[in-house]
Amino acid sequence: YLKELLPRRPDLKVVVTSATIDTERFAEHFADERGAAPIIEVSGRTYPVELRYRPDDDGQPPQDTVQAVADAVQELVREGPGDVLVFASGEREIRDMAD
Question: What's the whole-model pTM score?
Answer without folding.
Answer: 0.49
